[in-house]
């Protein structure tokens, strides 16, 4: 069950990430509703977690000693579904039911419906508290699993996040890791200046996150969230620290919103959206190559 | 046909252009709620607060103490549930002139699913002292309500629907708070509805007519305060009353009418609304049909659950 021991090579992770990204745009286009930018910025981190880090068993999604993962930025559900499908939790074809009626794949993650989902999310800001509860429970029960939570940088605006940031070190939760998908954009946000009204300033651009988190008693690492070496290196440091420092760790992952597709990358206007036929073709070529054959 | 959210953005931008007291606080959803219309047309009236609904309520209260007439704008569910303590403490108790524009209210929210469906807001908001609770039927009534709210000196909660519905009213329209409105007359069965569900219920009345049933339809834009005498007068001596709402059957319009009828009426009550369970993400038509709120399903329910069936 220890994925870190048998990590696939980085080019394989990259190929999986390209495939997941394709599934994201394709699925949202077919369902005619859903988010694009946030799922695409998180894809590499999710692939690294599910294929190279989490101790999990897709054949036994509820296994007691599994690592926990909470997608606190629940609007990125389709990104998580794509990765779960590739990892074998359910058939890739099932992605086509996303957001339809009577589907296991809801617009936001539903732990009662979808195998592999550890917490229901969708109202932003709540995931880290849920993760702290899981990490605290593991400590009290003497269980060895690790709890991972992913938030968006816009999501950091929610006060509840900071309630947990304040308290988690007090509980000694070195079995809790927060990943910030720092893509620099939210849904609408703040204009960056007068030059271009579509220019947006970073949600937490005015905040020195490393200093804030270390000030609260956390370990903090800043990485490139699209570089598998950097991501896996950070994961290794988290694992090495478990049971040692008594401090939770935050991984501040610099990412690009809409990453991987030319027309979605770096703009808040693709926070959600449905690609046209033509745009889909562009995305397919960019992600899978002209043949569309993929990896 | 225009969506209520667009009417909201345009009307508030209009008001803000001539009234400095009008400010809009956005919870990072301006492109959805259409607060972006205000941001584009009257930038000074637009305040981005971020994804921080509790903070938004606190700031709106603070602004209101300095003479501002702030509008809170985000998905209703994040105000009526997440920031309910702040609304209760800082707005309801103090009678602060804060306006809550509850966007994407009810079941239909662009297939975001149950986390985003606000189907308990009427029950929650109705229970708060000092709160005026309004659910306009269509674009025409919505605009009148927004304009009325601009001058009202107290807290106002308005449901704003995401998608356009077939208009029920024609301009010019003057909103009278608390007044029930007769939108269709008939003697076989009496229906009462609120919000955009009135538009669908009016379609249900047409379907019932095709099946030989003449229904009376009363629209209740204001759930609170309510002119109960006026409502009872419209209900008359009907033996059965059916409420229809895009809300939980618990505590909303059905609850309100049950309170009124049990105090002063004699009619038997049938409540059509969302059952006490969670829904799901899906396109509008699917949801309306599966959860019993499409015109056809409402007509079916009326026939199945009242004496007109015989
Ligand atoms: C409590 C709450 N408020 C508002 C929203 C609506 N919403 C969904 S995504 C989003 C922007 C999120 O931005 P960020 O956290 O930066 O995520 P990303 O850029 O990765 O998509 C907003 C405001 C929500 N889901 N929950």
UniProtKB/TrEMBL annotation, chain A:
Lineage, top-rank taxon, reads Bacteria
Cite the Transketolase N-terminal domain residue spans from the record.
18-287
Keyword Transmembrane helix listed? The answer is no
Q: Which InterPro entries match?
A: THDP-binding, Transketolase_N
The cofactor(s) it depends on are: thiamine diphosphate
Which Gene Ontology terms cover its molecular function?
A: magnesium ion binding
Keyword flag Repeat: no
- Which UniProt keywords are given for this protein, alphabetically ordered? Thiamine pyrophosphate
Please give the family membership noted in the entry.
Belongs to the transketolase family.
* Name of protein: Transketolase
Which species is listed as the source?
A: Microbacterium oryzae
TrEMBL record, chain B:
Which CDD domains does the annotation name? TPP_PYR_DXS_TK_like
Q: Which Pfam families match?
A: Transket_pyr, Transketolase_C
Which cofactor(s) does the record list? thiamine diphosphate
Highest taxon listed in the record's lineage: Bacteria
Q: Which UniProt keywords apply?
A: Thiamine pyrophosphate
Gene Ontology MF: a single term = magnesium ion binding
Q: Which InterPro entries match?
A: PDH/Transketolase (IPR051157), THDP-binding (IPR029061), Transketo_C/PFOR_II (IPR009014), Transketolase-like_Pyr-bd (IPR005475), Transketolase_C (IPR033248)
- Could you tell me which residue ranges the Transketolase-like pyrimidine-binding domain spans? 2-168
Q: Does the keyword Ligase apply?
A: no
Q: List, alphabetically, the PANTHER family matched.
A: PYRUVATE DEHYDROGENASE E1 COMPONENT (PTHR43825), TRANSKETOLASE-LIKE PYRIMIDINE-BINDING DOMAIN-CONTAINING PROTEIN (PTHR43825:SF1)
Question: What protein does this entry describe?
Answer: Transketolase family protein
């Amino acid at each position: 069950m220890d994925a870190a021991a048998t990590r696939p090579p980085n080019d394989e992770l990259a190929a999986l990430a390209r495939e997941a990204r394709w599934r994201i745009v394709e699925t949202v286009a077919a369902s005619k509703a859903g988010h694009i930018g946030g799922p695409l910025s998180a894809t590499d981190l999710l692939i690294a977690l599910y294929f190279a880090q989490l101790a999990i068993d897709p054949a036994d999604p509820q296994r007691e000693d599994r690592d926990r993962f909470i997608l606190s930025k629940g609007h990125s559900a389709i990104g998580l579904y794509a990765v779960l499908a590739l990892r074998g939790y359910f058939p890739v074809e099932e992605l086509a039911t996303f957001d339809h009626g009577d589907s296991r794949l809801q617009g936001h993650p539903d732990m009662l419906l979808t195998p592999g989902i550890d917490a229901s999310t969708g109202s932003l800001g709540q995931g880290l508290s849920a993760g702290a509860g899981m990490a605290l429970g593991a400590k009290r029960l003497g269980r060895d699993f690790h709890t991972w939570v992913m938030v968006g940088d816009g999501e950091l605006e929610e006060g509840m996040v900071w309630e947990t940031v304040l308290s988690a070190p007090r509980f000694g939760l070195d079995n809790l890791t927060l990943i910030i998908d720092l893509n620099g954009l939210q849904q609408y946000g703040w204009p960056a200046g007068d030059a271009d009204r579509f220019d947006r300033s970073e949600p937490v651009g005015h905040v020195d996150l490393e200093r804030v988190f270390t000030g609260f008693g956390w370990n903090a690492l800043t990485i490139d969230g699209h570089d598998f070496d950097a991501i896996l290196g950070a994961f290794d440091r988290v694992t090495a620290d478990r049971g040692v420092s008594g401090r939770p760790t935050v991984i501040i992952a610099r990412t690009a919103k809409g990453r991987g597709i030319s027309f979605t990358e770096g703009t808040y206007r693709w926070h959600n959206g449905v690609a046209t036929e033509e745009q889909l073709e562009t995305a397919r070529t960019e992600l899978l190559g002209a043949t569309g054959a993929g990896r | 046909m225009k969506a209520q959210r667009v009417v909201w953005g345009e009307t508030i931008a209009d008001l803000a252009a001539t009234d400095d007291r009008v400010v809009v606080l956005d919870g990072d959803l301006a492109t959805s709620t259409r607060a972006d219309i205000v941001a584009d047309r009257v930038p000074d009236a637009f305040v981005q607060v971020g994804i921080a609904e509790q903070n938004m309520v606190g700031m709106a209260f603070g602004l209101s103490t300095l003479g501002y007439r702030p509008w809170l704008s985000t998905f209703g569910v994040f105000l009526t549930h997440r920031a309910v303590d702040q609304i209760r403490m800082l707005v309801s108790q103090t009678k602060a002139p804060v306006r809550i524009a509850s966007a994407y209210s009810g079941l239909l929210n662009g297939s975001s699913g149950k986390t985003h469906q606000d189907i308990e807001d009427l029950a929650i908001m109705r229970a708060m002292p000092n709160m005026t609770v309004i659910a306009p039927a269509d674009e025409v009534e919505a605009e009148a309500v927004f304009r009325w709210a601009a001058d009202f000196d107290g807290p106002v909660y308005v449901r704003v629907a995401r998608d356009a519905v077939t208009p029920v009213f024609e301009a010019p329209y003057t909103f009278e708070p608390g007044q029930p409105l007769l939108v269709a007359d008939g003697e076989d069965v009496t229906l009462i509805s609120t919000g955009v569900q009135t538009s669908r219920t009016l379609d249900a009345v047409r379907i019932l007519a095709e099946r030989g049933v003449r229904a009376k339809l009363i629209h209740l834009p204001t759930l609170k305060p309510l002119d109960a005498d006026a409502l009872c007068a419209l209900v008359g001596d009907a033996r059965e009353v059916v409420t229809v709402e895009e809300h939980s059957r618990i505590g909303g319009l059905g609850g309100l009418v049950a309170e009124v009828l049990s105090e002063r009426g004699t009619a038997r009550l049938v409540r059509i609304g969302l059952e006490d369970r969670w829904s799901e993400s899906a396109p509008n038509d699917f949801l309306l049909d599966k959860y019993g709120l499409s015109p056809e399903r409402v007509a079916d329910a009326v026939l199945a659950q009242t004496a007109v069936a015989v």
